[in-house]
Amino acid sequence: MNLSAIMACDIKGGVAKNGTLPWPKSKEDFKIFKDFTKNRKVIMGRKTWEDPAFPKPLPNRTNIVMSRSNNFEQSDKADIVVSGKIKNIIENMDNLIVIGGAELFKQFYPYIYRLSISLFHDDYQCDTFIDVNKVFYDYQVVDKKVYKNFTHMSFIKI
After folding, report:
1. Whole-model pTM?
2. Whole-angstrom Cα distance, residue 104 to residue 98?
3. Strand order in 62-66's β-sheet?
4. Which of 21, 29, 48, 153 could form an SS bridge with 100, CB 3.0 to 4.6 Å?
5. Largest CA distance in the chain
6. So what's the pLDDT on residue 132?
7. What per-residue confidence (pLDDT) applies to 67?
8. Could you write out the DSSP letters of every residue in 38-64?
9. pLDDT at 96
10. Cα distances (Å, whole numbers) of residue 35 to 29, 30, 54, 115, 134
11. For 30-35, which contacts have Cβ atoms below 8 Å and span 24 or more sequence positions?
12. From the first residue on, what is the mean pLDDT of each consecutive set of 10 residues in the chain (158 residues)?
C-alpha cells in the first residue's frame, strides 16, 4: 500500500474557512502541490470538489471524488466517484494521494505513509481543522523548507 497525502494548513491546523482555502494564493505552494500530484491518482472529498475556487478537473491527474451523499451525481469532469470503506478503496487503488478535505484526511490518516504539509505562518480564522500536533507525533520530518508565508514539510510515518 502506497498512500500519500498533501495538505496545507495555518498555524492552528486550519484547512478551510467557509468551504475554501483562506490564505492568499502562493506560487511556491502551488508548485509543490503540482509536482507532488502530477500524473497521479488524487482523491478528494465532495466538499473539496465543490469548492468554487477548486479547478475541475485537476489536469494531468486522475480525479477521484469520494462522497457519502446519495445526492452527489457523477460529474462529467470527475474521472471516478467512489463511496464505501476506506480500506477497500486503498486496496483497490495503487499510488493514491489524498488531497483533502479535513474529513477525508482524518478517515485515511491511519493508512497514510508519506505526507506533505504546507504550514502557513498565520492564523486565518478557519472553521475546519486537522490535528497538526498528531502529525508531528506520528510522523518524522524528512525535509523542511521555509518560504516567505509558509513552511513546507515532508513526513514519513514512524
Report:
1. 0.93
2. 8
3. 80-82, 62-66, 41-45, 96-100, 4-9, 114-120, 150-157, 139-146
4. 48
5. 42
6. 95
7. 85
8. TTSEEEEEHHHHH-TTS-SSPTTSEEE
9. 95
10. 10, 9, 17, 14, 25
11. 32/6, 32/116, 32/118, 32/152, 33/6, 33/8, 33/99
12. 93 96 96 97 92 91 86 70 84 91 96 97 98 96 98 97
Task: Show the domains of the chain with their CATH numbers.
Answer: 4-157 (3.40.430.10)
Q: How many residues does the chain have?
A: 158
Q: Which pLDDT score, from 0 to 100, does residue 71 have?
A: 66
What pLDDT, on a 0 to 100 scale, did the predictor assign at position 1?
64
C-alpha cell at 24: 492568499
Q: Whose grid coordinates read 514512524?
A: 158
Cell numbers standing for residue 105: 484526511
How many angstroms separate the CA atoms of 130 and 142, rounded?
A: 20
* Amino acid at residue number 105: F
